Amino acid sequence: ACPNAAGPASLNGCPDTDGDGIADKDDACPNVAGLVQFKGCPDKDGDGIPDNIDQCPDTKGTAANNGCPETFKGYR
């Protein structure tokens, strides 16, 4: 499937630079190991929003807040 690059038979001959099991041609983050459900991108904070689109990739947040936590609007 990748005649100009070497890769394992398990990936139809396509390379997997980051070793996450997703061929580089199908990997949205080919240089960082990630998850299949996020097209090969990681989700470091585990909030369900891949780091490549998470505006706060190190802090758990919500999809409605682009991966950032909801701000507390109560009393101090």
Distance between the termini: 59 Å
How many beta-strand elements?
Answer: 0
Helix content: under 10%
What is the number of helical segments per DSSP (H or I, 4+ residues)? 0
The geometry reads as rod-shaped
Mean pLDDT: 92
How much of the sequence is in beta strands? Answer: under 5%
Main sheet makeup: none
Stretches where pLDDT is under 50 for at least 5 consecutive residues are: none
Structural class designation: little secondary structure
For the CA atoms, what is the radius of gyration? 16 Å
Descriptors:
76 residues; rod-shaped; little secondary structure; 0% strand
Describe the structure.
It is a single chain. The chain is largely without helices or strands and 76 residues long. The N and C termini lie far apart (59 Å).
Element layout with pairings:
Layout lengths: L76
How would you briefly describe this protein structure?
The protein contains no helices and no strands. The mean pLDDT is 92.
